[in-house]
Amino acid sequence: MMNTDIRSGLSRLGIWQSMLASKGGNIFLILLLAGTVFAAVGNLLVPPESALHVDTYTVTLLGKYLSFALLAMAVDVVWGYCGILSLGHGAFFALGGYGMGMYLMRQIGDRGVYGNPDLPDFMVFLDWSELPWFWQGFDQFWFAFIMILFVPGFLAFVFGWLAFRSRVTGVYLSIMTQALTYALMLAFFRNEMGFGGNNGLTDFKELLGFDLQADSTRVGILVCTALILAIAYLVSQFILSSKAGRVIQAIRDSESRVRFVGYKTENYKIWLFVYSAVLAALAGALYVPQVGIINPGEFSPLNSIEIVVWVAVGGRGLLYGAILGALLVNFAKTQFTGILPEAWLFALGALFVIVTVFLPKGVVGFLSMFARLKKKPDDPDTGSGAASDGASDSTQGTAT
């Protein structure tokens, strides 16, 4: 009994040591913390005339980027580590966003255009007489938060249970996930669904009693987004560094062999898919109060494909690689669409082709290879440097 407890404790200690030994992960956490603190202090404490002042627009933009980073990490968890190429994670993102949007709409009360304290404006416009049953309870944040996690998680469980137990894999699974998000997009476009139809949900006033237009609220949402991203990164790293994580990566490399030695691979894939969906829903919930709107366009299959591009650019099979890819591509999108908005999709497609052909391991993989090549063979730190990246580099190599 004691020996078992000791082995279990050592195993957990080894997981944490492998997490802390990841140079890229540590650098990411430090930069995330430093960037968030700089943006918060620069917005609230530095006067506007100072060169170090960070305006509210930039704070909101950073918060949106971090929401996308969390979404990219959710995709990388299932694609980079388990080999499940999902083209439907935009659906879980949008469902989480709608959950937050429903809560924010209930907070408007009689401050809407029509002054109805019980019904959102779009329901008054459509001559609805009462609030639908599925809107009940969304005036309470705790209930809305539970639904934000439960509904996408339950949908992912049902989909995964049907797909993975039927041993649907590869391109067929990808097409099914894309069909799922497309079907939801068509459904949410309908006014009778009760989610605002084509216009979606907007005109939000406050979150937990705080004015959404206030600078302090914007900074607070940015800080919350950064903290949730950091926590999700650590939890994901812990899971993927554990014994279950090693089984998941073995499934990616050869599912038939894992099944042959006695593991029920579908169970691992189902719970990982659900976990990934919950992360995507959290990203959507954080995204909505920062941009001020959620509509059916977020279900677009094109959005889900774009998420995959983020992960590929950063480097799949590395959590911080997916995060970096989301930040880089969305920053480029912001700059590019301001100059040539109609050419962005062509640029995105070209970027994906270039990365696939010339950078199969993504930006992080290229930087890691470049750093190793710069070190001299007789450098005494070479061995420790290779070991410091640990499972991350080896995972990236097998993921591609």
Brief synopsis:
The chain has 400 residues and is mainly α.
Give the termini distance in whole angstroms.
41 Å
Shape: globular
Strand neighbour order, sheet with most strands: 1-4
How does the major sheet shape up? Answer: 2 strands, antiparallel
Tell me the total number of β-strands: 4
Instruction: Please work out how many helical segments DSSP would assign.
Output: 15
Chain-averaged pLDDT:
84
Approximate strand percentage: under 5%
Element layout with pairings:
Layout: H1 2-20, H2 23-44, H3 56-79, H4 89-106, H5 121-125, H6 141-165, H7 170-188, E1 201-202, E2 206-207, E3 210-211, H8 215-241, H9 243-260, H10 265-291, E4 293-294, H11 301-314, H12 319-339, H13 344-358, H14 362-374, H15 381-399
Antiparallel strand pairs: 1-4, 2-3
Helix pairs in contact: 1-8, 2-8, 3-8, 3-10, 3-11, 3-12, 4-6, 4-7, 4-10, 6-10, 8-9, 8-10, 11-12, 11-13, 11-14, 12-14
